[in-house]
Amino acid sequence: MEELRKKEHLTVLAIESSCDETACAIVRDGRTVLSNVIATQIEIHRRFGGVVPEIASRNHTLAIENVVREAMEKAGVDRGGIDAVAVTYGAGLLGALLVGVNFAKSLAYSWNKPLYAVSHVKGHIAANYIDSTLEPPYLCLLASGGHTAIVKTEDYNVVSLIAQSRDDAVGEAFDKVARVLGLPYPGGPEIQRIAREGKAVFEMPIPKSSGLDDLYFSYSGLKTFVINLVHKMEQKGEIIPACDIAASFQKAAVAQLVEAMKLVSKKTGIKKIAIAGGVGANEELRARMDELEKDGCEVHYPKLVYCTDNAAMIGAAAYFGIMGGQEPADMTLDAKATVALK
Ligand code: KG4
Ligand code: ZN
């Protein structure tokens, strides 16, 4: 798609539907968001304590057309102003992804525009380019409901994995701990909210890596520790000190991320750092990551709205994919539940 790369400006219409947000954004040149519309299903899934895949797919189907229309209206562009269509093809809930993929395919086909398939994780990383001048190489902490990893972004389209979780993702642990504390879904923001009222008085397990070679994350031990702590207190008829437990859990969950990033930065000598994914919105994580600035690091965070799922990050990733020579997808594009990090 040489002609796209030669254009003075490149405007992408991007669609994201991998979990419980139906989203469409119009993004110019990978860094400027003309519109960013997100229809969240949080209220719908809350009564079930988590996302119900079938219900998510049905609600994406109901929302997608209006979400796309609204994004175009807000950006003030019509189909003539769109150069390419981009869509998250994975990882995520298969039925949910299919709604976005099929809608994007029909738009691209009927408008005669190239279609670009974007990995959700690459989207989260690319959120850091929005309204920013960040350029690779840099280290990226990926902390979401599905992933916990440190990657090195060598170039816009070349990512190498340095460490990842052996079991649960950090966001998943936030959600499960919130549940045991009786807090609604999604748990991350709720834990953060009540942790402000508590003190981190409970000692929580933090796995220790000795160096870069055996560096990993693990959240299942921490999650189980909190669940057991709460159950034991309940059995004894004690009042659960939810705010203190939340503060202690959050401190331990964040410490693991920060210590790992400190180690990787020190060992690799890379001082440019970016944060990606829903847990990247966490205030304790942001405050503790700022400590790395004392070691001469430069820490980049996406705006809060671009940390959790959105389509602007997909439009940003698509732009850098196109500029890096990514070939358009054809009408056989399919959704994938899992996508390798690299
Ligand atoms: O990136 P994301 O929206 O979706 C995935 O790709 O997984 O991340 C969702 C996760 C959820 O586990 C949610 O509880 C967590 O991000 N999260 C937070 C915060 N906001 C969202 N975790 C901690 N603190 C927050 N402020
Ligand atoms: Zn996500």
Please describe what this structure looks like:
This protein has 342 residues and is an alpha/beta fold. 42% of the residues lie in helices and 19% in strands. The strands form 2 sheets. The chain has a 5-stranded mixed β-sheet with strand order 3-2-1-4-5, with helices on both faces. Strands 8-7-6-9-10 form a 5-stranded mixed β-sheet, with helices on both faces. The two termini are 23 Å apart. The mean pLDDT is 96. The structure holds 5'-O-[(R)-(carboxyoxy)(hydroxy)phosphoryl]adenosine (KG4) and zinc ion (ZN). Zinc ion binds at residues 120, 124, 144, 309.
Give me the Rg, rounded: 20 Å
Q: Give me the strand/helix succession.
A: HEEEHHEHEHEEEHHHHEHEHH
Helix content: 40-55%
Spatial arrangement of strands, main beta sheet: 3-2-1-4-5
Assign the structural class, choosing from mainly alpha, mainly beta, alpha/beta, alpha+beta, or little secondary structure.
alpha/beta
Query: How would a textbook summarize the main sheet?
Result: 5 strands, mixed
Key terms:
342 residues, 5-stranded mixed β-sheet, 12 helices, 10 strands, globular, binds 5'-O-[(R)-(carboxyoxy)(hydroxy)phosphoryl]adenosine, binds zinc ion
Kindly summarize this structure in a few lines.
The protein is an alpha/beta fold. It has 12 helices and 10 strands.
